[in-house]
Amino acid sequence: MEHKSGVMEVEDPKQSELNRFGDHEHQHKLTRRVLLKLDTRILPMLALLFLCSFLDRTNVGNAKIIGLEKDLGITDHQYDVGLAVFYLTYICSELPSNLVLKKASPKLWLPFLTTLWGIITMCLGFVQNYAGFVAVRALLGIAEGGLLPGMVLYLSSFYRRGDLALRIGLFYTAASLSGAFGGLLARGLAEIGPRGGLEGWRWILIVEGLLTFACGVLSFFVLPNSLESASFLTQEEKEFGRERLLLDNPKAPDGTLSEEEDAFRWSEVRRGILEPQVWFSATAYFAILSGLYSFGLFLPTIIQSLGFAKDANEVQLWSVIPYAVAAVITVIVAFVSDRLRLRGTVMLFTLPIAIIGYAVIANVKNPHIQYGMTFLMATGQYASVPCILVWLSNNSAGHYKRATTSALQLAIANCGGFVATFNYPARDKPYFHRGHTIILGLLVFAWFMILFNVLYCAKVNRDKRNGKYFDSHEDAIEHNPLQVHHLREQILANAKFVYRDDNIDLLTGVDLDQEDIRYAHLIRRTSYSDRAPMAILFGDQRTAR
Fold it and tell me: Which intervals hold domain Major facilitator superfamily (MFS) profile (predicted)?
């Protein structure tokens, strides 16, 4: 059956392989069982690692307000340089780390990175001067840079694209929880005081680094390398999970990646770099992270400048509440995004929450209203991140192209760290009008970049319906309408219907070796869509509506 656009969709022959797992009801139960096991064994560990990551990069913000600058003898500008150098090395390490991940294996690489930056964080607690502070922060960036792109890539080897937003949302909630947890932990550790010749802020870094090291060691024993090596899955569950992933693969028409296609090629890296969606999403993410990192690094300073907290310890406690609220909202938004199967459109509604927060806090002087706006600032930004991470991954085909687009997006986005570190200088106290206004402008820019990407997705899908399509190298080509009609008749003559409804026909018996059929828009390789896959048809997904 044809769509109104005249395009027919053809079933991936691999779809029929799921039939060996029983009827639809049994497959549904298998799906729920596999996802539940993955969710309870993998996600908590990744969330813990990500919590440690955010905790160890932003804990200097808590250390600052209880004496770090004074004890090291550094100026406010030197402190900002120490923050900025972290993001320089962080960005430089993201893409190489992601390309190494597959060869090194996730079970080894992710725990190695975690234990390494745990040790480095502990070392930060022993620095004595400006040079040591900058050097250790630079090393911390190298170690932490590979974690987030590695985890996104790692999750894509266990979950279908439509399952990812909620899962990434769940572990990204740890970023906002790290702010809440970090504030509480800093409040307690600061009470240790100068024990053993160490100031209170040093204990924050040493203890949190030690906790990270322990989590890294634990992750080695918890995280599996792949579905096949997951000891908590039965053999049937492993095979079923693998088949689901193959059907969700947008790269190959037969649902698999050949050894040649899965091998590293610089052409795959080039395709990732030239992908327009990378630049739309990466620049939007850059703007969001500029605000997010500013918030994480300077929220204690902002709250302290409001004047209603009696001391530094009370400031730590007041900083907990906005993060806790943001964590809850982030999970809700990720769930809604997966249910609606929308990414960009959801962000068009979440980002304005943060925009309102920054617009108000930049223009009012009432400390209680300003504090209230920090809830909107945190919620709007944290809730947007899972959607923007998954959106690009959904539309990237092939391991190394996906690795490139994911790492490139994050490398560009994390340049926002440079904006964040210099955005709230001490001379702008107590209102920080300039810093709030800069983030406000960046978030408005991000909103428009997301809108452009939504429109770009719609245009590509509309062009496909009108006869444009992509070959195996994603190059746009035209196809003679008469030839398309001939190919359609040829398919119908030799194929067998296995399922049909108002929107779609599933066929078997199609000769996929015919080059004209494989390159015709009847069989599309990748769909650039604002929606996650609703039906897996020849590695394609339905277009955005």
Answer: 42-464
Rounded distance between C-alpha atoms, residue 205 and residue 126, angstroms? 9
Contacts of 378 (CB under 8 A, 6+ apart): 176, 179, 295, 322, 323, 325, 326, 354
| Count helices and strands in the chain by DSSP H and E runs | 23, 4
Classify residue 62: in a domain, yes or no. yes
> In sequence order, which residues have a C-beta less than 8 Å from that of residue 138 and are 6 or more positions away?
85, 86, 88, 89
Residue 229 backbone dihedrals phi, psi, to 5 degrees:
-100, 5
Single pTM value for the model: 0.69
* Residue matched to tokens 């904006």: 419
- Supply the range of the domain harboring residue 163: 18-462
Higher pLDDT, 253 or 424: 424
CA dihedral 94, 100, 101, 107 (to 10 degrees): -120
User: Is 239 part of any domain?
Assistant: yes
Nearest to 107 by CA among 56, 23, 46, 62: 46
Tell me the Cα Rg of the chain: 25
Overall number of domains in the chain: 1
Query: Is there a domain that residue 119 lies in?
Result: yes
Helices (H), 231-319: 235-247, 259-262, 266-273, 276-306, 312-318
Q: 481 exposed, middle or buried (CB, 10 Å; 0-12, 13-18, 19+)? A: exposed
- Going by the DSSP 8-state scheme, the letter that residue 342 receives in this structure is -
Q: Please write the tens of the pLDDT for every residue from 10-53.
A: 344 444 455 566 566 777 788 889 899 999 999 899 989 988 99
For residue 505, what is the DSSP state? E
Q: What token pair was written down for 22?
A: 């029983």
Indicate whether 487 belongs to any domain: no
